Amino acid sequence: MSESDHGLTRRQFLGLTGGLIISFTIPARFATAADDAEAAAEDINAWLRIGPDSKVTVFAGKVEIGQGLRTSFAQMAAEELTVPVANVEVVLADTDLTPFDEGTWGSLSVRTVGRQIMAAAAKAREILTQMAAEKWGVSADKVTVSDGRASLVGNAPTSVALGELTQGRRITRQLQGEPKLRPPDTHEAIGASVKRVEGPAVVTGQEQFVGDVRLPGMLYGAVLYPPSFGAKLTSVDASRAEKAPGVVALVQEAGIVGIVADRPDIAQDARSLIRATWSEAANPSMDVLWDSFRRTAKLEDTVVEDGKVEPALASAARTFTATYRTAFLAHAPMEPHIAVASVENGKALVYSSTQTPFPHRDEVAKALGIDKKNVHVIAPRVGGGFGGRESADCAVAAALMSRRVGRPVMVGQTRSEELTWNYFKPAALIDVRCGVDGGRIVAWDCDVYNCGDRGAEPPYGFTNRRVRTFGCDSPLAQGAWRGLAGSATTFAIEMHMDEMAAELRHDPVEFRLAHLDKDPRLAKTVKAVAERYGWQPRTSRTGKGIGLACANDAGSACAEIAEVEVDRKTGLLKVNRVVVAHESGLVINPDGITNQIEGGITMGLGMVLREQVRYDKGKILTDRYSTYRIPTIQDVPKIETVLVPNPSHPSEGAGEPPIFPIAAAVASAVYDATGKRFRELPLSADTVLAALRV
Predict the structure, then answer these.
(1) What is the distance, to the nearest Å, from the Cα of residue 136 to the centroid of all Cα atoms in its chain?
(2) In which band, very low, low, confident or very high, does the pLDDT at 673 lie, cut at 50, 70 and 90?
(3) Which of 46, 245, 269, 654 is the most exposed place for a label (fewest CB within 10 A)?
(4) Quick check: 354 and 388 in contact, CB under 8 A?
(5) Which of 91, 107, 69, 62 lies closest to 357 in space, CA to CA?
(6) Alpha carbon distance 92, 381 (integer Å)
């Protein structure tokens, strides 16, 4: 997890002798402009090195958050170099060792850096093939590469390991253009269900997380949090806390008030002895949220506007209007936010559970007032992110405390703090107006409040469309969450599609397919899920509790069918079965992508069944798992996954798309079972029971 673990720093790596080094950048369409002079100068996002011993090392700034990047990256490199996956080491998320990366989010890792790893490995194979040809005095087409060796065609004994071809020289190239990749029908490493590289360490408890870091002389810090959002500290009396046994120091700097002590429990107990007074903000209560959104709304963006929406609505034979709402949600990762910092002689070493190690580096440097080149951030294995690992608060607090006491300091949040003092998934309010003529949608007008634009543009080929997003004043801190707005916008789109299909007495599958004439990938995926489920065409409710929804995201197409049962006496909703079809181009690891799909669906079930951040005037009421209830193993249904083949298409994202359709699929299934429409999440037992009694 440190420089010594890898044995070299970035500068040492660039100065290595021996082996072939390929550097590469992510494609421009995926690149994010970075306020980073060093990154701009290098314009490099990762390296691939083939050593003289034929061992392959891939260096990338991405973070392993449970998505299996080390395994998939290794497979992609191994495939193009024809070496065993075990011969590839993948080094991630170390700001002194790996090249700059903006962050790990958006289901972008495989579809950006991963694709370029394949291209870099293919380029390396081309270079080494040419070197072998020169060695034997033949043309390159007389050399073949397999099993990590270059061989002379027609003379198999004449061969050499790829790593030996450099003969101890240092050869560097920057990837230009797109080298010729191996045809999908020849793949061996790609497409195989390879076990996770880190799997044994995770299940045996040997995997190292930030909480496992122990530095010599390390102390523990606890940060004082305000009583409610927006509260301002007016006075502090820490005299009792400073005198407590085991307390090393009180730190008051850059808006942070904290205790440093010999043990974490001592730090937390001493923090409770601090007498602080606060000026609390006039925060609104939950019952005025939706009115507040409308009252404070300001147009952010017109996502799409084509055709003539208003005239089409006015002339449509029928119109359908509805409003959809989704709650604030917490990330609830297994590992709470935590960081360890050691600041000494104007330099800082930071271990942080973050998705954004390079932005973390910059935040710590700014807080300490030092050059970012003197800050080294390492993100070891992270215990879940879901978009909630961007804040550098713990890292900054640990760094300030370490500088104050001259020793390493660990700062971590309790479970209650994790569920209270980090940003949340934005609540969403979505208005949809739709016009229909002759059984076809002729106008679509959608206004999205507070949650952003991801997934807001429907995948369907409507003639007249307008989609707008509005920013609103939020009573809570809000930010990224798995799929951003997509789970909320898809809920609105797909629920509206289902309602129109029911009112028009069209089969839900056929109604969607009729509007997917311009999206063959999603149409194929909808057909695949219907076939796997055994969907029977219908023009009215079946009473069996079956619902369908679909969406595009991160370059992938996803369709899901949910099967539910509703207890009419208690209102309890149980999801018994989910069938999902997912098309994400070339599949690197079927087992890995299936795990991601199942995880996304399970997380989405929390959103639809019970998860909701409850608050009162800025104070979070759901600050523990007994009040903020995430799905458990008992809530997980039978999930059947269909990986729709499309190997000629490059690999696309898989971590987020499956979370988009599940809420609408479940809510549509509840309508099929009960005849009741639900347009607000979560579908708690009380909500369902109240509707059933009407």
Answers:
(1) 48
(2) very high
(3) 245
(4) no
(5) 62
(6) 9
**What are 30-33's contacts with CB under 8 Å, separation 24+?**
30/108, 30/111, 30/112, 32/102
Q: Is the pLDDT of residue 39 over 70?
A: no
The answer to whether the CB of 664 falls within 8 A of the CB of 547 is: yes
For residues 459 and 549, give the distance between their C-alpha atoms in angstroms, rounded to a whole number. Answer: 12
d(CA 679, CA 323): 7
Type and span of the H or E element at 270: helix 264-271
One-letter amino acid for residue 240 of the chain: R
Q: How many CB atoms lie within 10 A of CB 366?
A: 14
Nearest-angstrom CA–CA distance, 582 and 550: 10
In the prediction, which pLDDT does 34 show?
38
Beta strands 170-174 and 19-24 are: parallel
Structural domains present in the chain = 3-198 (3.30.365.10), 211-280+333-418 (3.30.365.10), 297-328+423-692 (3.30.365.10)
Q: Quick: pLDDT tens for 256-282.
A: 999 999 999 999 999 999 999 999 988
Q: What is the pLDDT, as a whole number, of residue 36?
A: 41
Residue type, 616: D
In single-letter form, the type of residue at position 44 comes to: I
Q: Is the pLDDT of residue 210 over 60?
A: yes
- The DSSP line for 78-104 is HHHHT--GGGEEEEESBTTTSPP---S
- This prediction has a pTM of 0.93
Q: How far apart are CA 451 and CA 387, in angstroms?
A: 14
CB 563 within 8 A of CB 669: yes
Whether the Cβ atoms of residue 552 and residue 459 lie closer than 8 Å to each other: yes
Residue-wise pLDDT for 519-555, tens only, equals: 999 999 999 999 999 999 999 999 999 999 999 999 9
